[in-house]
Every structure is written in structure tokens, then in C-alpha cells.
Write a structure and sequence with these properties.
The radius of gyration is 22 Å and the shape is globular. By secondary structure, it is of the alpha/beta class. It has two domains: about 50-255, Rossmann fold (3-Layer(aba) Sandwich), CATH 3.40.50; about 265-320, no CATH class. Strand 5, helix 6 and strand 6 form a beta-alpha-beta unit. Helices cover about 45% and strands about 10% of the residues. The two termini are about 40 Å apart. A seven-stranded parallel beta sheet has the order 3-2-4-1-5-6-7, sandwiched between helices.
Length: about 325
């Protein structure tokens, strides 16, 4: 009979809700430390229970304030909540540009909250490659809800749909033109629309406009995205926003869409990890090689352009492995 490998001490610490162990392990995951693999494997059977809720939208729409309000609501309801804030990366260090700022109000003594700011590390959608694994760590740690706030880099972060089961797209009044330009990306991922800062003029018009777009936009499922208004200044609409999130989560469970979506997310994760492994191996094979140095000499002398040099590297190192037909 095949014996199971012993459970690593770090995994036991996570299951025992050791916050310091969790913080250290997240750092290792962010740094792509291959030594965490046995720990992640041991914790995987203890995951799959947390509701993962994504919040995205353009910069300046008040996502962090909205997350803070949702956090207070959930804690009052007795929910253990993990919060991941994905910030833009420094182009020099790769670290989080905004990670040191105080993003949410939290009592340091409240063990029912765990907040982590992560760097997007240049990922085009603003999501770090390690985000899925960090979400899973929070799940194994016992968090019932994980709120995932994206950086809002570029126009909107559509990659969040590959991580969260319910996606909230946050907008503010007077973004009609921007909504129009973002419509394709927004409507692909939005399960709930939140018109934040509804204490400002034009909120009702923005909500009506979104509701009209929702009615005209076909979806691959039967869910009709809810449109809610909220104001963190007035403290209104937060209950309605969470009710819309819960309604979508309930729809996923009753319609069978959760299992389908979960499999799609897992496929995306496996393929992303596979690509990461292949890319790292391919680059390591040619980095610093005599072949690369020769091609760089040609590029530097303007006898070869960079694209042709890259094509040459690919053909020499991959074409030779193609199976013969």
C-alpha cells in the first residue's frame, strides 16, 4: 500500500491558523519559490470552500473604500474574510507600488481578517501569477470569503474572471464614454455592476444606462447582471451589493454553473503553470549561451534585427524537437 508523504510543518501551521506562517508562505509563493510545492499539495484537499469575490474597474472608482465597507459588513455577520489587493508593480523592483498604504480599516487584534497587498508584476490584467495560490492559502487558513481587488491598471482587469466565481465591476457616475469603450471587456466578466459614489450627481442615470446595456448584451448563461448603487461616504447600498453577490453565488450553485466555471478556472491555472514552466526552461536553455552571444553580435552590428534573432533561437532550439510526420 502506497504511504502518503508526511504533512509539512508549514501546512500544519496554516491549518492551525498561524498568521505568521501564512504571511511567510505567501511571500514564498509570490517569489515563485519551488520549495512551497509540497506545502501547497498538502493543503489542496483543504480548499474549495471559500467564496472568492472579485472587484475590478478603472482607477479612482473607490474600489478600496468599497472593499473596506464590505469587510465591515461581513465581519459583523461573523464571516472570516481574507482580502487581497493587487497593486501595480514597480518597473524597477517588481514590488507593489501602493502596497505600503493603509487600504482598509482593521483592528490588528481581529483574527477574522487577513489582508495582503500583492504586486501585479507586469501581468497584463493586473493579476499576479501567484494570486490563485494565495487565494487557496487563505481558503485553507479558514477564510470563508476572499475579496480580491485588482489594480485597475490600464482600463479594466478582465483576468479576474479566471480567479473569482463572482465578479463585481465598479464604476462611478459620468463614465458613460469610458463604459462604452470598455463594454466588451466589462460585460464579459461582470456578474454585478456597482455604481459607486452614488452621492454624486448622475448616479441614477449611470445605473439606468448600465441596466439598458445589460438588457441588450447577450450572455452565455441565464444570469442577468444586477446593477446596484452604493456610497461609502453615506454608507448606503453595501447591503444591496452583498445581496447581489450572494444571489449570483446561489445561482451558480443551483444552475450547475459553479462546477463548470470551477473546471474552466482550474484548466486556466494548470495551463498557466505549464506555460510558466516551459518558458522558464526554454529561457534558461539559451540564456548566456554562445549561440545567443553570436546572435547579439549580429544584432548589435545591425546585420540582424531582434525579431529575426529570436526566430533563429526558436528554430534552432525547438524545431529540432518536432516529431517527424
Amino acid at each position: 500500500m502506497r504511504r502518503r508523504p508526511p504533512v509539512p510543518a508549514a501546512a500544519r501551521a496554516i491549518l492551525a491558523r498561524d498568521r505568521l506562517a501564512l504571511a511567510r508562505l505567501i511571500t514564498k509563493v509570490e517569489n515563485r519559490d519551488h520549495g512551497v510545492a509540497p506545502v501547497l499539495q498538502a493543503l489542496y484537499p483543504h480548499t474549495g470552500r471559500a467564496a472568492v469575490i472579485g472587484l475590478t474597474g478603472p482607477l479612482g472608482v473607490g474600489k478600496s473604500s468599497l472593499v473596506n465597507s464590505l469587510l465591515q459588513l461581513l465581519r459583523k455577520a461573523g464571516k472570516r474574510v481574507g482580502v487581497i489587493g493587487v497593486d501595480p508593480s514597480s518597473p524597477f523592483s517588481g514590488g507593489s507600488v501602493l502596497g505600503d498604504r493603509i487600504r482598509i480599516d482593521r483592528d490588528p487584534a481581529d483574527t477574522g481578517i487577513f489582508f495582503r497587498s500583492m504586486a501585479s508584476r507586469g501581468h497584463p490584467g493586473g493579476l499576479a501569477a501567484a494570486t490563485r495560490e494565495v487565494v487557496r492559502l487563505l481558503d485553507a487558513f479558514g477564510m470563508e470569503v476572499v475579496l480580491l481587488e485588482t489594480a485597475g491598471t490600464g482600463q479594466v482587469d478582465v483576468e479576474i474572471g479566471a480567479v473569482a466565481s463572482t465578479n463585481v465591476v465598479v464604476l462611478v457616475p459620468h463614465l458613460g464614454d469610458e463604459v462604452q469603450s470598455l463594454k466588451a471587456g466589462l460585460f464579459e466578466i461582470a456578474d454585478v455592476f456597482c455604481v459607486n459614489k452614488c452621492d454624486l450627481p448622475g448616479a441614477d442615470g449611470a445605473a439606468r444606462y448600465l441596466a439598458e446595456l445589460v438588457g441588450l448584451t447577450p450572455r452565455s448563461d441565464a444570469w442577468r447582471p444586477r446593477v446596484v448603487q452604493a456610497s461609502t461616504v453615506l454608507g448606503t447600498g453595501i447591503d444591496e451589493l452583498w445581496a447581489a453577490v450572494e444571489a449570483h453565488e446561489a445561482y451558480l450553485r443551483t444552475s450547475g454553473s459553479f462546477e463548470k466555471g470551477n473546471r474552466t478556472r482550474l484548466e486556466a491555472e494548470v495551463l498557466e503553470l505549464y506555460r510558466e514552466r516551459i518558458l522558464a526552461g526554454a529561457v534558461a536553455q539559451v540564456e548566456g549561451s554562445p549561440e545567443l552571444r553570436r546572435l547579439l553580435d549580429e544584432v548589435e552590428a545591425r546585420r540582424l534585427d531582434p525579431r529575426a534573432a529570436a526566430d533563429s533561437l526558436y528554430e534552432r532550439n525547438h524545431a529540432r524537437r518536432r516529431p517527424r510526420s
